[in-house]
Amino acid sequence: MKITTIIAFTLVIIGALVWLLIGLFNFNLVAMIFGSGAGAVISRIIYSLVGISGLWLIFYWIAYNPFRNLD
User: Fold this and answer.
1) C-alpha closest to that of 46 among 32, 58, 30, 60
2) Is the pLDDT of residue 58 over 80?
């Protein structure tokens, strides 16, 4: 489970950087590298993996709340 969480954190950070580029510069790095439009299956897979990683981290936070020992 540790390796899954590390991969999820990595993908979410990469996804956040892509959204930063889109927000600041209107530049989609994933679409530039893997293509855009209807034929961009790889881009859709990458976006799906980032979304699944975000869901995994929500599960991880609920199950292993790292802030519960701060009281």
Assistant:
1) 30
2) yes
* pLDDT value of residue 42: 87
Residue 38 backbone dihedrals phi, psi, to 5 degrees: -70, -25
pLDDT at 51: 94
pTM: 0.78
For residue 66, the 8-state DSSP code is T
Amino acid 38 reads: A
Q: SS3 breakdown of the chain: % helix, strand, coil, rounded to 5? A: 75, 0, 25
DSSP 40: -
Q: Token pair of 70, please?
A: 């701060």
| 26 backbone φψ class: left, alpha, beta (φ>0; ψ -120 to 50) | left
Q: Please give the helix or strand (H or E) that residue 4 lies within, else none.
A: helix 2-25
